[in-house]
Design brief:
Layout: E1 29-31, H1 33-46, H2 56-79, E2 80-82, E3 98-102, E4 108-114, E5 125-127, H3 131-136, E6 144-147, E7 154-162
Helix pairs in contact: 1-2
Length: about 170
């Protein structure tokens, strides 16, 4: 068998996800204050001791994973710029806004527009770089946005825009 298809080094990086590519020189990504604090907490937690009950082999793999993630988080924290909402933005969608949308089926959806390093759609955090967030930027409640998807366009009605988490919630039945 050719050496090109064998792994000589047992480096232990199996299953590890690669670091996010760095931004172009001088380009900074945005992050909310809450996202920045969460990354700081993650960095601190990753530097803590390895639990004693982990088997030796597993502890080695997990230690390398934690070290890799700590390097990734530290790099992210250096590259991002915390952006807090500006009171003059009230009523319009900008970075950091909480939005409530209604999809074509009449279902309410609630998201916060955040930076790509803190995005998690399942947790209601939508990356500002996503097609939906880009379509929403600058819009006001009552407006309809059209988002192109591979399986066809979809319309969303913007029901509410707020900048404090507790002020906006998805409409109830």
């Amino acid at each position: 068998m050719s050496k090109a298809f064998t792994k000589e080094d047992g480096g232990g990086d199996e299953g590890l996800t690669p670091m996010r590519p760095r931004s172009a020189s001088g380009e900074r990504r945005y992050i909310t204050l809450e996202g920045y604090r969460a990354l700081q907490e993650e960095l601190l937690a990753s530097q803590g001791p390895i639990p004693q009950d982990w088997p030796e082999l597993e502890a080695g793999v997990r230690k390398r994973e934690r070290e890799r993630r700590a390097r990734e988080v530290a790099a992210i924290l250096e590259e991002v710029r915390v952006v807090e909402p500006d009171p003059s933005q009230a009523g319009r969608v900008f970075f950091g806004a909480w939005v409530v949308l209604e999809d074509e089926d009449g279902e309410p959806l609630r998201y916060r527009i955040v930076g790509p390093d803190e995005a998690d759609v399942k947790a209601g955090r939508l990356s500002v770089e996503s097609p939906l967030a880009r379509a929403l930027l600058g819009k006001e409640a009552g407006e309809v946005v059209l988002v192109e998807r591979p399986r066809g366009p979809v319309e969303y009605e913007l029901l509410a825009v707020e900048y404090a988490e507790s002020e906006v919630s998805a409409p109830g039945p």
